[in-house]
Amino acid sequence: MADTPLGISWIMKDHTVKNIDLATKLFSMKDALTARRFHKQIPGYRMSALQGLPNLASMFGVGGIWVKDESSRLQLNSFKVLGGSFALYRYLQKMLGILGEDTPFAYLASDEVKEKVGNIIFASATDGNHGRGIAWAAKKLGFTCVIYVHSETSVRRIDAIKSNGAKVVIVDGNYDDAVRQVAIDAKINGWTIISDTSWDNYTEIPTWIMQGYLTMLTEAQEQFGGVGLVKPTHIFIQAGVGALAASVIGFYHALFGQDAPTCIVVEPDQADCLYQSALANDGEPHSVKGDLDTIMAGLSCGDPSPIAWEILKENADCFMKVPDFIAAKGMRVYATPLNGDPFVLSGESGAVTLGTFASIMQYSELEELRKALNLNEDSQVLFVNTEGNTDPVHFRQIIWEGANPVPQQYWINR
Ligand SMILES: Cc1ncc(COP(=O)(O)O)c(C=O)c1O
Question: Shortest CA distance to 379 belongs to which of 256, 229, 217?
Fold first, then answer.
């Protein structure tokens, strides 16, 4: 473990041989292609772009920077809908006794299915994006849903959920409190919970959600093939409860085994449950408490998803925690591309990984980490821009007004 004056900390995990059994079981290419076939038939589906930023790559001294850009996925501004929609699909298939087959989206939305499965009410807790995705998918399939948010959730995020037809319940406390409350209320009301985080005896739906995220990875692999690359050498992936990170890291380990890319998990320093779990080094997931006060709303989670942790503890190479100004810097780097590079619209949780990478490449204080990760001119680095402009007011405050600035002592003078 190491701390730097930038407030960035990291833990390198030295796996001699990685255990990839669980990754292989949960994230096979077969599962990934099943998810992809399902998403392909959703009206409006399009592959998201894999953006190359060659000029930024050359400025930072790496071979390539690649951004899987989820900022406009199904016009919902985040990757999250991939997981929620696939979980609803699997759940309905299971109710209908047709799990294992491919089912047309239009059939699941039909009256015939409603007659067979009855009036299901879906419920979930969210810090914004997951709830929006569930609300959207439930509406498309003709079901109602209730979404729990915590009291600090921005009005813009709440409105985005409501505009997709869901009822929104606001809970005192943080994201983890909303998760606990919806679990209690769902039991009382007979609702079906579609949660992206897992708990004891609740792993099937969170696993489907993680498998739903694989669509973007099969797309990315196809897109890498198109530019003559077999795979990235490094992946920086952001984490809240860790479900996304587990699916990305699990997928690449299932596909490439011990030759998988070097995988770096990035969290906010105020919501660093996976970092703390790695630090404890006892194989168990550990929670962090408190306000979890960070601008990275999507990553503001204090309880790791246990099933995601099982993958991450075996397969992640490095756990990092970073302050908010790193995410704001990442947003500005994306929004002001070097001449010839594309513009990428990225929100706080989406941009933190690029901000982290930029810092590693720019600051001499982080040279030790740069070397430990083997980041150099041969590196092809993958980022997932997990969200676009999901909170326009905050986005403008950061990009236009300069909120969350890099402290002046860290300004780069060259
Ligand atoms: C934009 C964004 N990025 C990343 C994440 C992290 O996903 P996970 O909670 O699975 O770690 C989230 C979660 O809501 C999110 O909304």
Answer: 229
* pTM of the predicted protein model: 0.97
Same domain, 73 and 152: no
For residue 295, give its domain range: 2-79+205-410
**In the prediction, which pLDDT does 21 show?**
98
**What pLDDT is attached to residue 2?**
52
From residue 272, alpha-carbon distances to 40, 126, 310 in Å are 35, 18, 17
Q: Any bridge partners for residue 384, and if so which? A: 68
Among the listed residues 31, 68, 69, 127, the single catalytic one is 127
d(CA 34, CA 37): 5
- Residue from 48, 72, 73, 78 to probe ligand 1 pocket by mutation (most atoms less than 8 Å from CB): 78
Instruction: Give the pLDDT of residue 67.
Output: 99
Strands 167-171 and 144-150 turn out to be parallel
Q: How far is the CA of 205 from the centre of ligand 1 (A)?
A: 16
Distance in Å, CA 255 to ligand 1 centroid: 23
Q: Of 195, 223, 244, which one is at a domain's C-terminal end?
A: 195
- 89 with 129, same domain? yes
Please answer whether residues 81 and 46 qualify as being in contact, where contact means their C-beta atoms are separated by less than 8 angstroms: no
DSSP string, 69-93: E-TTGGGTTBTTHHHHHHHHHHHHH
Token digits for 17? 């041989």
Same domain, 335 and 397: yes
Same domain, 283 and 389: yes
Task: Please say if 80 is a catalytic residue.
Answer: yes
245-286 pLDDT per residue, tens: 999 999 999 999 999 999 999 999 999 999 999 999 999 999
Domain C-terminal end among 177, 195, 213: 195
One domain, residues 296 and 392:
yes
CATH no. for residue 134?
3.40.50.1100
Measured in residues, the chain has a length of: 414
Q: What share of the chain is helix, strand, coil (3-state, %, to 5)?
A: 50, 15, 35
DSSP letters along 141-193, please? HT-EEEEEEETTS-HHHHHHHHTTT-EEEEESS-HHHHHHHHHHHHHHHTPEE
Centroid of ligand 1 to alpha carbon of 129 (angstroms): 8
